[in-house]
Amino acid sequence: MKNILFYGDSNTWGFDPATRNRYPYKVRWTSICAGILGADFCCIPSGMNGRTTMFDDPLKGCRNGLEGIDYALQTHKPLDLIVVMLGTNDLKYTDAAGCAAGMEQLICKIITANERYNLSSPVFPDGAKVLLISPVLLFENINETGKCDAREESRKLADLYIDIEDRYGLEFLNAANIAEPSDTDRVHLGPEGHRKIGQAVAEKISSIFDRLQV
To answer: Going edge to edge, which strands form the sheet with 130-134?
Structure first.
């Protein structure tokens, strides 16, 4: 069985913009992905509302993805793959380049997990494998500090993430080419968006492991 960790924000958690509660299990893209992949895969969702790559929310704790990643890795190891989809919430605090810098720090922490915890069992027994997903575009300005136009900056993330993919030999998927946020708040995925992302991620994961078996 392949163990896969999904590390993300409210769209990974399953935030419903209409009710502001959590979508039922079967609606979330992580669950749809798990259903498609089947019994040979253990899919572990680790989503949190407001999570960033490395920025602290001054009003809500536990949102810093860089600080939280080791807890997630150590809790759910051993892992065969981690899927990371973050960046939207960073645009409250920085621009796209700052977001990409945060993502690069997060990726570096993930891929060095075995070396940093070499006195315990490895996080990635077969070596670190990362699927980096650039998030869906924003159609509202979520920025609260006036530092940037979050709508425009969200359109730059995919190219910046591709650069990270190239530098570290990652897998990559651009969610903005697959789905749009819901009409309710133009930030969070609706049920159709979850379905599309879940299917696309399942196809990508299948292709990753098919290649590894060749």
So the answer is: 41-47, 2-8, 81-85, 130-134, 171-174
